């Protein structure tokens, strides 16, 4: 797993020169999920070196859409600023954290890669069993090093635990407990927008919302291509892919339409999670048009 540290730090340079290569991995291997998560936010191609008949298709479907395309992030995945000068493989306390950005959402990956290093003598990575502790995990939205994530409020969704926290300030530190050796987590970071809703008798109220993307994809935020609000109380989205789609919303939706057709939605008021299904892929070369009405 120290390979992930090497590629992430190499991307600080290589990412400025070309498309990064995070290498192949075995989808059915013991560390397959960790490697898949790294490829999802790495910004490069995704390819596997499986033996014939030895594939984890459930995992591959979290990386690849039914048409064979991927939700590729915009940049090379790079270490977050708070890990740049940490020895994330041997200091016994630090997680490797990698950031990237999509069209609207950011993504942060956290990986416990403690306990391995490159052996110059053996010319391969070796394990250091005495240095494989659990590490604490914390992050803040501004670790996504692009302007939209440096100010304002955000929604942060954890892929594995399904935990949604919102609203979160750009520099507000969130604690997520500990990562055991070889464990990982991916976080979608979505800037929160506000819709002003007009009510009877001239009264006005507001709803906060942020698209999170496809909840069952490792880089689900990459499915959100466009998002904007309307003074009429609508949120309008253009979206890739199919499957369960999630949004943060401070109130339930009155109606959700996908390509002009009304679809059912579920709202978890405790988490503020609005969920609905994109039942099929859009036509080739096109996007889903989604309208979420709050009044």
Automatic annotation (TrEMBL):
Record key words, sorted: Carbohydrate metabolism
InterPro entries named among the record's database cross-references: GH, Glycosyl_hydrolases_36
One Pfam family of this chain: Raffinose_syn
Superkingdom per UniProt: Eukaryota
Recorded family membership: Belongs to the glycosyl hydrolases 36 family.
Protein name (record): Uncharacterized protein
Organism name: Diacronema lutheri
